[in-house]
Amino acid sequence: MRNGKTAVVRGGGDLATGIIYRLWRVGYSVLALETALPLVVRRTVSVASAVFDGRAKVEDMSAVLIGSMKEYDPASDVIQVLVDPEGRSIREVKPDILVDAVMAKKNIGTTKDMAPTVIAVGPGFSAPGDVDAVIETKRGHTLGRVIRYGSAIPNTGVPGIIKGYGTERLLRAPTDGYLLPVRKIGDEVSVGEVVGYVGGVEVCARVDGVLRGLIHPRVRVTNGLKIGDVDPRGDPSHCWSITDKALAIAGGVLEVIMSRDSNGK
């Protein structure tokens, strides 16, 4: 059952999906806004996958791509995904909550007047000037904390450490082109194993583990772009479950919403 309240989330990647999931679990009807060709890597836990496939399922939550606002149903129990990177639909929806989870490391046009409560995820925003609150996204002691005065920690470009591995976990495009995968998400891979090709150039795993993410083959990639990641913990089930990081960030979003509902702050 929906609670009669609506939320718009800009972004449909894995972190945004963690937020969407928790909003959905507490009764919000959620519209996710994405680009025409999302750069999402963790496709099995991202509602952005609906842009490519028409539908997506993350854990027990379903998402569907809608072609325009004419198809939007504010009472839907299904997450609706709309290609609208500029956020033009936000004024029409008039959401109770707006969350910017694009993870662009900068503000791409989210302002406090777009909804009664506006929350931003990660660096590039300042509270209370740009938004009502910012949620910290950097792994560590402050992950998921609500920032009402100031900004999140600037992006370092270095991923969080898992079992002693950081940048080694990532797969990056060796040249411009399209990914031709030869392995799929959930497969176990070894150091040096070919995962796919970009422009005829091999993309190889740099750690042993499970292939947790791969960018969609329809997306044109540029040299150096993150196109996949390997989880050295080696548990395939992690490929289909929302991460601790995403849920921690989502908890920060819910804190802002609940504090607003309880005391108007």
Automatic annotation (TrEMBL):
Lineage: superkingdom: Bacteria
Return the NCBIfam families for the record.
matur_yqeB
Protein's UniProt name: Selenium-dependent molybdenum cofactor biosynthesis protein YqeB
Q: Which organism is it from?
A: Cloacibacillus evryensis
Q: Which gene encodes it?
A: yqeB
